[in-house]
Amino acid sequence: MEILEIFLHSLINLAIMLFEYTGVLIITFSGIQGIVNYIRGNPETRLILAKGLAMGLEFKLGGEILRTVIVNSFAEIAIVAGIIALRATLTVLIHWEIKNEQHEKHESHTDPATEEDQEPAAETEPSKSEEQK
Predict the structure, then answer these.
(1) Among 33, 54, 60, 88, who pairs with 23 as Cys (CB 3.0-4.6 Å)?
(2) What is the sign of the dihedral through the CA atoms of 41, 43, 46 and 50?
(3) Burial of 126 by CB count in 10 Å (0-12 exposed, 13-18 middle, 19+ buried)?
């Protein structure tokens, strides 16, 4: 029984490291990609960066959730719970930012179409000189 516990503990530690390092790599790659996109003047830099950060934080959050399986004391549980709450809050805020960016992008693409629809209506209104006749 003790061998199984040691094996599971080692497996969980390996999975935690895998999730944590994957999250770090994704965040690092997204940061570098964000710098390159900013230098190039890509208008979607914020959206791309936010998506990368959200993905990286989700991997790190997965590692913290796995960490709750192997904690030994209530003090450790409190620390892990605080980290999970902080990372979950950051993830929610980043997803909110992504949603707002996509909504603004969608509105900016639909605004010219509504302006074109309004222009002919303005042309059909009689001018002041026609009203005086």
Answers:
(1) 60
(2) negative
(3) exposed
* Torsion of the alpha carbons at 14, 17, 20 and 26, rounded to the nearest 10: -90
Contact present, 45 and 32 (Cβ < 8 Å): no
Assess if residue 34 is contained within a domain.
Answer: yes
Question: Within a domain: residue 131?
Answer: no
Determine, yes or no, domain membership for 118: no
Kindly give, in sequence order, each residue whose CB lies less than 8 Å from that of residue 45, ignoring residues fewer than 6 positions away: 34, 37, 38
pLDDT digits (tens, 9 = 90+) for 45-97: 999 999 999 999 999 999 988 888 888 888 888 888 898 899 889 989 999 98
Dist CA 1 CA 77 (whole Å): 25
The domain of 55 spans 2-108
| Residue 25 included in any domain | yes
